[in-house]
Amino acid sequence: MDTSFKREPATGDRSKAASAAWGPPFVLGLLMAVLGFVALGASFLTSLVSVILFGALLAGTGIAEIVSSFRVRKAGGPFWLYLLSGVLSTVVGFFVLVYPAAGLGALTLLLAGYFFASGLFHVVTSLMDRYPQWGWDCAYGAISIALGVIVMAQWPVSAVWLVGTLVGISILMRGIALMAGSLELRRGLRRIAT
User: Fold this and answer.
1) What are the sequence ranges of the domains in the chain?
2) What is the mean predicted confidence (pLDDT) over 34-40?
3) Would you tell me the crossing angle of helices 11-41 and 43-75 to the nearest 10 degrees?
4) CA 150 – CA 33 distance, rounded (Å)
5) Do 22 and 189 form a contact (C-beta atoms < 8 A)?
6) Which among 106, 99, 123 is positioned nearest to 162, based on CA atoms?
7) Separation of CA 105 from chain center
8) Which residues are CB-neighbours of 169 under 8 A, at least 6 positions away?
9) Averaged over 84-104, what is the pLDDT?
10) Is the peptide bond preceding residue 156 cis, with omega within 30 degrees of 0?
């Protein structure tokens, strides 16, 4: 006969554990949402910081690729491919760091081209294939084409707001998604507890 008893955690311990599971992600999501609003309010500064960070990451990646090319050379790998790619990444990264406004303008043009090409692809494929609910994809493509045309028509002024606005919206949406996920976790934990 088994006489051992398992101690059930106290209700206070369970509520603390539940709060620890959903509370910090909710607070982080709230802070991210606030940061997203701040980034949207200061879109030019956000654009500038984003392009400087992009340039620093590109230069750092290029330097790492140059170092990697010499390691690959010893193993008989594609030395010249890594070396030239690393040099190109480093040079472009340093140019973006030295001339952030020009980098911001170039990045805006790349984004406008991406919006236009992506939208055109979605419109053409949805009209050609006519899969279920193809209209939504076609509408997405039309909006993307319009956004690409608007950004291109307003260039170089659009370089001031586009990147910062996109970064701000991204941070805001991630914060909202994190808060929503943590609240859903809270509801699930309450259902389990009852």
Assistant:
1) 28-189
2) 87
3) 100
4) 27
5) yes
6) 106
7) 20
8) 36, 40
9) 88
10) yes
